[in-house]
Fold this protein.
Amino acid sequence: MTSSPVSLLAAALLTALVARAQITDTADGVVAGIPVNYTEAKTGSYTLPDVLTCADGTKVADAQAWSAKRRPEILKLIEENEYGRAPGRPEKMSFDVFDQGTPAFDGKALRKQVTIYFGADKSDNYLDLLVYLPAEAKGPVPVLLNFGWVANNLAVADPGVKVGRSWNPSQKKRVPATPAPGGRGFGRVTNIPQVLARGYGFAVFNYSDVDPDALNALDQGVRRLYLKPGATACAPDEWGSIAAWAWAASRVLDYFETDPQVDAKRVAVTGASRLGKTALWTGARDPRFACVIASVSGEGGAALSRRDYGETVAHLVEKTRFPYQFAINYAQWANRANEAPFDAHFVIALLAPRPLLLQTGSTDKWSDPYGEFLAAKAATPVYHLFGEKGIEEYSLPPAGQPMMNDLGYLMHEGPHGVQPADWPVFLDFLDQHLKPKP
């Protein structure tokens, strides 16, 4: 039975009213000379491209057609127009497990450290991976892989961790990572004991080990290794930094597939903000990842671009901000979001039927929490093809009330970022979807 246009319109209006009640309009702003809309009524009208209509106009009727035809179409579309094409596994990649399993966290964990070299040249082209596994595990364990903001030795309070590298913007190079005066702050990971207590391993690597999060730094990251001879820039459809960071997570999973203490078929990936976008694209691009938790990914992640609310494509690709994070082609949609043959629900749909939790904040208007909800709602029909549940309600859920279906949604009360109260929900989501069913 299908809904009538009138009933759909009524439902949409009701949803807008509920959203407006929870996310209050505030004064519009300007960022980088570009207007920012924070008024729900000014998001305008738009029509989303149908995730289940193929490029030739045929409709997807089942999971087989989705997997064989529509999903590859969408993956190619997003690669070439948003994040950029990335290479596969490097032929000369190698793993140096220099810490085989040292007791940590008062004996509750075994610490492993691995350097993943991307090629034969080991002077600079590598990432350092830090892994903690439950000490009492009797066999391979599922692992939560976290995109880290800082070097591993700054991310955890563990003196046995190798001193890593930090990107120095003034020197335009990586330097040894030393704690800031007064102790460690930004990027500190404090939830590892919670993760271990649930029976999961925890792994983290510093994203700037892979590609600097900076303008005009292409020559300092992994992408330079794949430039065509004589080229000084990536091709318009080739990878930006987000795709490079996601590519590195796949290299971590390559390592996990060699580690008998890790259940490589039950690896989840998580990150926040630009690393939330990265976690989302990691899972979309590499179906080996069993689960994704994407936090406050916003524009360029899980939020609909057509809404024109908070950050926009134009803000992302503005020349002084973050154009390097995306394929050069992405800039063509800066002021033409309504004309793009895709939107965020296409990226979300690429995860189906694997579990995906989108986490947002009720006052994080810049990232558009309602836009993430609507994108997930629009991607839900793909989960239905596989017999899984997505966003089944029309109304935005109250802050702190998670939707825990295979495609889930959590909005905390508060701003951009991950709050301590979010972590138990994350772990409940992993328990629900990654632990073997009785």
In short: Confidence is low (pLDDT under 50) at residues 1-18.
